[in-house]
């Protein structure tokens, strides 16, 4: 059973050492803490699925997350959960792609700066 003070527990995978509670994820998302046995808003469903996916290392698969969702006592239709899961994965993929692009851009910027410094060193002092 879920309380505002504690995380939902699961049996799959190993719990992350820095486990974030469902209440903390909800607070960051700005939504009321999802309660088991009650219909969840779309935002609460995203919070629960994100929490279930990433509280374990490695992250849970869709099937593992749905099993943990049901085991914890949350209520939601299969189609709604599947659609929300897909949206969550799409957002996460987009975020990872943005991070990779930023890292690549930073790397290229550093490479360009290093190349400029090397060019200046080879050119010698300016008069």
UniProtKB/TrEMBL annotation:
<feature type="compositionally biased region" description="Acidic residues">
    <location>
        <begin position="113"/>
        <end position="127"/>
    </location>
</feature>
<protein>
    <submittedName>
        <fullName>Uncharacterized protein</fullName>
    </submittedName>
</protein>
<feature type="compositionally biased region" description="Basic and acidic residues">
    <location>
        <begin position="84"/>
        <end position="111"/>
    </location>
</feature>
<feature type="region of interest" description="Disordered">
    <location>
        <begin position="84"/>
        <end position="127"/>
    </location>
</feature>
């Amino acid at each position: 059973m879920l309380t505002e003070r504690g995380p939902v527990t699961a049996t799959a995978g190993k719990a992350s050492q820095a486990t974030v509670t469902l209440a903390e994820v909800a607070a960051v998302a700005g939504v009321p803490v999802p309660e088991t046995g009650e219909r969840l808003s779309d935002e609460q469903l995203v919070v629960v699925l994100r929490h279930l996916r990433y509280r374990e290392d490695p992250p849970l698969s869709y099937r593992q997350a749905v099993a943990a969702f049901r085991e914890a006592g949350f209520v939601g239709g299969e189609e709604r959960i599947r659609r929300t899961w897909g949206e969550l994965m799409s957002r996460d993929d987009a975020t990872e792609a943005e991070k990779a692009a930023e890292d690549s851009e930073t790397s290229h910027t550093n490479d360009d700066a290093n190349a400029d410094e090397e060019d200046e060193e080879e050119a010698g002092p300016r008069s």
